[in-house]
Amino acid sequence: MDRNKEIQGHLLAFITIFIWGTTFISTKILLDVLTPIEILFLRFAIGFLVLLLACPHRLKVKEFKHELYFAGAGLCGVTLYYLLENIALTYTLVSNVGVIISIAPFFTAIFAHRFLDGEKLQTRFFIGFLIAVIGILFISLQGGNNLQIHPLGDILAVLAAVVWAVYSILTKKISGFQYNTIQVTRRIFLYGLVFMVPSLFIFGFKPTLNELLTPAHLFNILFLGLAASALCFVTWNSAVKILGAIKTSIYIYMVPVITVVTSVIVLQEKMTGASVFGIVLTLTGLFISQRKKHKKRD
């Protein structure tokens, strides 16, 4: 792989994760006036409209099989992942969800090894994975809370990690179809919104317009729609196309790191010694997992 292209892939993955790591703050603010499903539908509806304006040309699908991949990606990466994560948060602790979601790279690696050519498992991946998860445990327990088991919520969080891994595999497959990334992401969003419609009837969809249009709430929903959805799904899909599913998914380890740092800056929360130690371990795990295997010279 061209060195500059690889650096571009890592940069895109980092930008994506940096923004996604700050979305918890925006979501927390919006939960005062919107339900989780309302936030989810609005952010992806905004994202879809922005991508439509950015690239209004219709996506001409070459094969019907490709359409099935788009539908699967929309179902897994947009609808199921976020619904499972949001519902899990109502049954278990935020710290539990943060730790469990971080195992998505593990499932991605297993699926990639099975279904993708050229994405093989390496020992260093598992070493880095274990170090990073231990670090994430320290970060999640920074407030002194004990990690408690809540079977239903924890299982839903595991399922969320699994469907995100499936999404990563599907997007890597889609990248081989040679379509425009913005058009592909827009099509995935469309399917995600369509699959989301039944949940709107189940959970209700009655956002309060007056509350939503207040400056703070409007800024945060636009941030989720424009940056965290429209921009980040394009940059993430581009990173997967360049680096592959396994290498890109490893950046998920950084989400709790960024969340802790931004909560200290924005919410003035205190960073404990445990969280600092956890951040060091997580970044070490990320580095080990990403490190290339050097070939021996004769």
TrEMBL record:
Entry's localization field: Cell membrane
Statement: the UniProt record of this protein carries the keyword Transmembrane: yes
Keyword vocabulary terms for this entry: Cell membrane, Membrane, Transmembrane, Transmembrane helix
InterPro entries on file: AA-Vitamin_Transporters (IPR050638), EamA_dom (IPR000620), EmrE-like (IPR037185)
Primary localization class, coarse: membrane
Keyword Metal-binding applies: no
Top-level taxon of origin: Bacteria
Mode of membrane association: Multi-pass membrane protein
EamA domain location: 9-140, 152-288
Transmembrane parts of this sequence: 12-31, 37-55, 67-84, 90-113, 125-143, 149-167, 188-205, 217-236, 248-267, 273-289
Stated family: Belongs to the EamA transporter family.
Protein name: EamA family transporter
Organism per entry: Paenibacillus phytohabitans
